[in-house]
# Entry
Amino acid sequence: MDNVTLATIQTARQRIGEAVLLSPCHLSHYLSELTGLPLYLKLENLQRTGSFKERGALNKLLTLGHAERERGVIAASAGNHAQGVAFHATALGVRAQIVMPLATPLVKVAATRNYGAEVILHGASYDEAGEEAMRRCLDEGRTLIHPFDDAAVIAGQGTIGLELLEQAPDLEAVVAPIGGGGLIGGIACALKETNPKIRVIGVEAEKLPSMLRAREAGAPVTIAAEATIADGIAVRRAGQLTLPLVSRYVDEIVTVDDEEIASAILMLLEQEKTLAEGAGAAALAAVVQAKINLRHRRTAVLVCGGNIDVTLLAKIIERGLVKDGRLLRIRVYLQDRPGALFALTQILARERANIVETVHNRAYYGVSLGETVIDVTLETRGAAHITAITHALREADFRLERIH
# Structure
């Protein structure tokens, strides 16, 4: 298979059958009211390995001949692709090696090993891990399963498009994240070849818009590495196979920043009771932040994965709370005398602000000998509540500043 068509995607769907979950696609009443759109969520985060990646991995594995299966497969990945390949290769009795960067979180390494793959830690980045995977592929005769630039992988991801057409027959728009382009390339091909009127929008991380740059240049270009919480779409170079698909079928590409993604993760947790990783929430972030003019179109948003490190999740939740105005940190200057702190906490209690943390300091911040400073972190109800709290404190002659 060297190209992607509606027929190859339909074949991929028959091939993978029920080995991959037909993920739910439900209308979100909350998000529909918030955005003014009939908004559906396609929950690929509920797949066995936590993301859509196993669709393409399984389709590729099932196209291998007996000799290729005997030699085994290899892939480079720091996360979802690794787990998808590992799980399905093991289920098919195929030996899998996964090359992961040295800095890969231990939870991801452990998950990949638990799915039955041999994990090789190599290199400081995905690029270096990819080079090592290619070297081993050539030296050992293994089949390389590329995370996105492979026609069988792209066709496997495209099966999501076929499901969307059945689950939401009146669909008018689909919003999906873009990393290397395998996911949106496959989905967009399935959708547009069936109904060209469906609008397809891609969403990239603002720090790594590799597909946007490739479309502008007319060819894949390598962009500088950047850190982002949407690590699943942090791809520095678009694929040779995926760029033509995106250029042909994708109507628009927009970007979202980390704060917008964090807010979308929090929204999915609180309102939809579903866990998304950074890449998994990027598409929703673009819709909620009105990056796209969807004009009341019946829209499906892809929640592509939920494999998020717990420590990172805690940080993302905190960032999201700060952005939404539900976590406030203020620095208050007090007279260094008995009862000053009590007076402060009385006002905060009266304003129904919950104190999360305090740091009391006399020696720093340039305060005079008769003063002290306290940093207070508060749980609040939003911007209006913050305004009320700061007004009440200033009315009581407290000098304060907001810490951003």
In short: The longest strand covers residues 327-335. The CA atoms of residues 84 and 214 lie 27 Å apart. Residues 327-402 form a domain with the Alpha-Beta Plaits fold (CATH 3.30.70.260).
